[in-house]
TrEMBL record:
PROSITE patterns attached to this UniProt entry: FAD_PCMH (PS51387)
Domain FAD-binding PCMH-type: 52-224
Pfam families: FAD_binding_4 (PF01565)
Name recorded for this polypeptide: FAD-binding PCMH-type domain-containing protein
Record-stated family: Belongs to the oxygen-dependent FAD-linked oxidoreductase family.
Keyword entries, A-Z: FAD, Flavoprotein, Oxidoreductase
Gene3D superfamilies per the UniProt record, alphabetical: 3.30.465.10
Length: 502
């Protein structure tokens, strides 16, 4: 839907096009970036994925929460323009954090973190990247459970859950938010915490951007020194041994909550075959922890960066190169080596098929496995308030599981992206069929890695969906976000969750 297709505003009778909206925002004192300017082009180029870049009529950059409030009131009351909200811009696809023929609200100038030593709370503005957060907290000797890649944005990461190096000990990032400062659809600036708007507080723990624009996340911080860990690379021939090591790690996670392990089967452009890159980290800085002994015994080892280093530097090591098209998807399976091996066989099949399509030097394919042990979800309840992810009851049913992600990174145009999505969908569906056949399927889809063709909110279970629908109806009774923010963090299908029907 383009802005020109929206009806005139009932309160004012005005129906300005998006260019008029941009003029209005500029006249109101907002910092506005226009197309075909160096500033606009540079900001669009900062998206992680080319696939996420759209063509907004303008980009508006608020600097404080009160400006976001004023901005929302102007957009809702005086315009009919649609908008998107950008935090870090790391989602792989569009229109997630950008928009065509609309206004992109870019929170990138709201990137400050303050540490309150008395309450041990980090107050993080909504446009921050995790590198901003860690570099601020490091001198205090504390950290928070955030992104494992330094260039990921705080906002989308937390609102989708937030798996992290410390998950085994404290749960997802969203479980560690004690307060959200949020601008609602009508422009009101409110707080959501255990004592104030507690239902909204819970809904924001995995409910994505369905409820407003979060301008600040207040998170529990904790004392933290250097981690021990890094990346170990093995040849593809070590697949069975790495799967065994990872599977045993997942099953032992309850007894070793200081550890983090995930593995990428990685075809990297121009290679003859994939390699296996395992990211192993001990949050206490302990070298050669017994839980990693099975990994340590795997030979040959092509490379290793294991060392003692800061939280920030460990996340810098996991940064991915931007400037390419991306197609991602996410699924969850029971921790069973047989289904994990099947997934890798599908990975290898996809690589050979895509090589035949485009050659071997214009794409990379990564298939990571990340532990989702049952102990992880107990932390959500233990931290108070719970979350809406539904993994501990509706999907996981107390089982240790593995999050399977696949992401294709490639050069090319929109037509090739359409073909890439078609084939990646085939990859995903093949895994789904096999997991259903073998009884290893788990319904949960992790929002932060899901493709726009997936519907992760539905995978949270009927009770959580009903709860989200009720919260949306309470805090956005007119369905403004559903109607005016067509992309959102995850193609939110607000017709299913909102109070207003089309």
């Amino acid at each position: 839907m383009t802005c020109s297709q929206l009806p005139a505003n009932e309160a004012t009778g005005a129906a300005p096009g998006t260019d008029s909206t941009c003029n209005l925002l500029e006249a109101a004192g907002f910092q506005v970036l226009r197309p075909n300017t160096a500033e606009y082009n540079a900001r669009e180029a900062e998206y992680y994925s080319v696939s996420a870049q759209m063509s907004p009529s303008c980009i508006v950059q608020p600097k404080i929460a009160q400006e976001v409030s004023k901005l929302m009131k102007l957009l809702v009351t005086n315009t009919t323009s649609n908008w998107a909200v950008r935090c870090g811009g790391h989602t792989a696809w569009g229109p997630a954090a950008d928009i065509h023929d609309g206004v992109t609200i870019d929170l990138g100038l709201m990137n400050q973190t303050e540490y309150d030593a008395e309450t041990q709370t980090a107050k993080i503005q909504g446009g921050s990247l995790w590198k901003d957060v860690y570099s601020t907290l490091e001198p205090y000797g504390v950290t928070v459970p955030g992104g494992r890649t330094s260039t990921v944005g705080v906002g989308g990461f937390i609102l989708g859950g937030g798996n992290n190096f410390y998950s085994g000990h404290v749960g997802f990032a969203c479980d560690n938010v004690v307060n959200y400062e949020i601008v609602l659809a009508n422009g009101d600036l409110v707080n959501a915490n255990a004592n104030e708007n507690a239902d909204l507080w819970k809904a924001l723990k995995g409910g994505s951007s369905n409820f407003g624009i979060v301008t600040r996340f207040d998170m529990r911080a904790f004392a933290a020194g250097d981690l021990y860990g890094g990346l170990i690379t093995h040849p593809l021939s070590a697949t069975d041994r790495v799967i065994s090591a990872l599977s045993h790690f997942v099953d032992g996670a309850a007894d070793y909550q200081a550890g983090s392990a995930f593995a990428f089967w990685s075809y990297i452009r121009g290679a003859s075959e994939s390699v296996i890159i395992s990211a192993l980290h001990d949050a206490t800085g302990t070298a050669d922890a017994p839980a990693f002994a099975e990994y340590a015994a795997i030979e040959p080892r092509l490379s290793s960066s294991l060392r003692k280093d800061s939280h920030l530097n460990m996340t810098i090591e996991l940064n991915f190169e931007k400037g390419f098209r991306n197609v991602w998807f996410a699924q969850t399976v029971v921790n069973d080596p047989a289904i994990l091996k099947f997934i890798i066989e599908e990975h290898n099949t996809f690589v050979e098929s895509w090589k035949a399509e485009v050659g071997n030097d214009t794409f990379s394919l990564y298939t990571p496995f990340q532990p989702l042990p049952a102990v992880l979800f107990a932390h959500g309840a233990a931290q108070g308030g719970g979350n809406v992810l539904g993994m501990n009851v509706t999907s996981m049913r107390g089982r240790n599981c593995v999050l399977h992600q696949a992401f294709l990174v490639f050069e090319g145009g929109p037509e090739l992206e359409a073909e890439a999505r078609r084939r990646m969908t085939g990859y995903r569906e093949a895994v789904k069929r096999e997991s259903v056949r073998t009884g290893t399927d788990v319904a949960f889809e992790y929002l932060n890695y899901a493709d726009k063709a997936q519907d992760p909110l539905q995978s949270y279970g009927a009770d959580n969906v009903a709860f989200l629908r009720g919260v949306a109806a309470k805090y956005d009774p007119e369905g403004i976000l559903r109607r005016r923010m067509p992309g959102g963090s995850r193609y939110q299908r607000m017709s299913e969750y909102g109070a207003v029907e089309e």
